[in-house]
Amino acid sequence: MAKHHVETTINGEPVEYLCETSQTLLDVLRDELGLTGSKEGCASGDCGACSVTIDGRLVCSCLVMGVEASGHKIETIEGMADGENLHPLQQKFLEQAALQCGICTPGVLVAAKSLLERNPDPTETEVRYWLAGNLCRCTGYDKIIRTVMDVAAEMRSS
């Protein structure tokens, strides 16, 4: 099967890769580029574990074909920290133990960051709505929601 040449930007860096037409963006990120932070939970867009942003829009990377990334700006969990400095969401998730097994965590963090970039002062209902596409079997969501609310408040005050 012929492979397609794709040029894109991932986490601020220009990237080129070859992929088959049938490969999802998640497959490309994990298998071709070694960016294994995004997880495959369902392969049907139902769990949010593979969430990334494309041109600022939150998407499930298991539903996007790798060839469709051409010319777009992709942000993954690997691009969230600034070198050794964790993003405030990442730091607060650790401090407040808002994660357990870790399968959903990358997708939740990417989704929460996307929310706070659009709405720095969300209500609890807005946070719950925005993160509704990210399923977690371990935490019960309360710590996740409280942590996102705390980070939003801290980011607004700084």
Based on secondary structure, the structural category is alpha+beta
Looking at the structure, the CATH topology of the largest domain is Ubiquitin-like (UB roll)
Q: What number of structural domains do the residues give? A: 2
- Sheet with most strands: strand arrangement: 2-1-5-3-4
How would you describe the shape?
Answer: globular
Main pleated-sheet profile: 5 strands, mixed
**Pattern of helices and strands:** EEHEEEHHHH
What does this structure look like?
With 158 residues, the protein is α+β, with helices and mostly antiparallel strands. It has two domains: 3-79, Ubiquitin-like (UB roll) (Roll); 88-157, Orthogonal Bundle (DNA polymerase, domain 1). Helix content is 34%, strand content 17%. It has helices at 25-32, 88-95, 105-118, 124-130, 142-157; strands spanning 3-10, 13-20, 51-54, 57-60, 73-75. Strands 2-1-5-3-4 form a five-stranded mixed sheet, with helices on both faces. The longest helix is centred in the C-terminal third of the chain and has 16 residues, at 142-157. The model has no long low-confidence stretch (mean pLDDT 96).
Keywords summarizing the entry:
158 residues, alpha+beta, Ubiquitin-like (UB roll), DNA polymerase, domain 1, 2 domains, 5-stranded mixed β-sheet, 5 strands, globular
SSE layout and pairing:
Layout: E1 3-10, E2 13-20, H1 25-32, E3 51-54, E4 57-60, E5 73-75, H2 88-95, H3 105-118, H4 124-130, H5 142-157
Parallel strand pairs: 1-5
Antiparallel strand pairs: 1-2, 3-4, 3-5
